[in-house]
Amino acid sequence: MKLVSILGSTGSIGMSTLDVIRLNKDKYRVVALTAHSNVDKLVQQCIEFQPNFAVIGSSELAKELASRLKSSPDSATQVLFGVSSLEEVAQLSDVNMVVAAIVGAAGLLSTLAAAKSGKQILLANKEALVISGELLMNVARDSGADILPLDSEHNALFQCMPAGYQTGLPAKGVRKIMLTASGGPFLNFDASELKKVTPEQACRHPNWSMGKKISVDSATMMNKGLEVIEASYLFDFPADNIEVLIHPQSIIHSMVDYVDGSVLAQLGNPDMRTSIAHALAWPERIESGVAPLDLLKDNVLNFSAPSYERFPCLKLAFDALNTQGTAPAILNAANEVAIDLFLHRKIAFTDISSLVAKVLNKMNVVSAGSIEAVLSVDKEARAVAFELSEGV
Ligand code: NAD
Ligand code: MG
Question: Could you state, in order of their start, the residue ranges of all structural domains in the chain?
Fold first, then answer.
């Protein structure tokens, strides 16, 4: 029996994780569940999975959660709240696995806490790696924490990597990483159409059902940019050897190109339960509930190169990765602010990339060597983004 804490259990990844666990109840026990503010969903999850701990965003919400759980028979869940409680449930001594599925920089400290205590981390919270990639990978290496990627592309790459890849990809014959991208809902929109798109259109992804922030990231292709940075830290590979390919069907989830001309790919239906089940059971395999791939039905697989002109966020991310230091943290913070403003209809869709570019231009890049430095840059970049958003 593996004991699991799920950080961000009420989100899209959190719920898909619970779906897979529901199919495999004999193998996993949920020790902790966490949510920012969705009390209704957390109550339902606590009643079904009976975790030892439930964490919510504020003391008021914790009171409401506790009183609703009290009225449910045989609930023994202890209710906690706030950031330090997220870290606490990420570090519980009897927990084997931590699913890091909080969205954005809000997931950084709890992911880092799990890494410090040597847990097996099932990482969905890509922003944590973008903001503090080197730091997080070093902490995990020192503590012996395994980081198993849930992001479908990185999970695919992980499945296609050679044994012992941690000692360096070139030495193991890897030439290139090829990340596939659906291109999102606006792949064929022209510049004038892009200016007018609404949050509702941006959140309607053609292939995947996801939280709002990553849906907008997919529409701007910042998601792929964040994933390039994620892949670079996760597999210790330079930006120059990472290629992005538009593949609108989302059947090939990514590929590893070897020096002998072999290209290994992982295929499957676009459903996050496959990578979640893979990481939960690794190195074994379990049922995920995902339908088998029918290549006779999905029999056309297309590929094309992405346009930096139409998707400037992708270029900004490559540039930030090449700059290193706190550049990726600045990119991420500015992007989180820009998306929030777009979702609240304060800026246009096309302003997201221009605002991120302006913040990157304005701020100095320093070393990302300590968590304090990274957190302070994250805070400053948010303030600068708000200030500059007045003028976009
Ligand atoms: P979501 O918005 O559906 O869920 C986010 C979860 O985080 C919720 O449980 C929410 O309560 C919690 N949360 C939000 N703000 C918080 C805060 N300030 N403090 C504590 N908890 C907070 O998001 P999602 O789509 O499930 O994405 C989660 C992460 O997984 C993101 O980093 C995303 O990039 C990554 N990811 C998602 C998918 C997908 O298919 N949804 C695929 C790949 C990677
Ligand atoms: Mg992905």
Answer: 2-149, 151-321, 324-392
Q: Is the CB of 205 under 6 A from ligand 1?
A: no
pLDDT at 391 (0 to 100)? 79
For ligand 1, whether the C-beta of 11 sits within 6 Å is yes
Ligand 2 ion: nearby residues, β-carbon < 5 Å: 151-153
Nearest CA to ligand 1 atom 21: 36
pLDDT tens digits for range 288-318: 999 999 999 988 999 999 999 999 999 999 9
Mutate to test the pocket of ligand 1, among 37, 40, 83, 103 (most ligand atoms within 8 A of CB): 103
Helix (H) or strand (E) holding 13: helix 12-23
Residues of the chain with pLDDT under 70: none
Between CA 270 and CA 249 the distance in angstroms is 9
* Residue 392: predicted pLDDT: 80
CATH architecture of 2-149: 3-Layer(aba) Sandwich (3.40)
324-392: CATH class? mainly alpha
Contacts of 3 by beta carbon, 8 Å cutoff, 6+ apart: 28, 29, 31, 94, 95, 96, 97
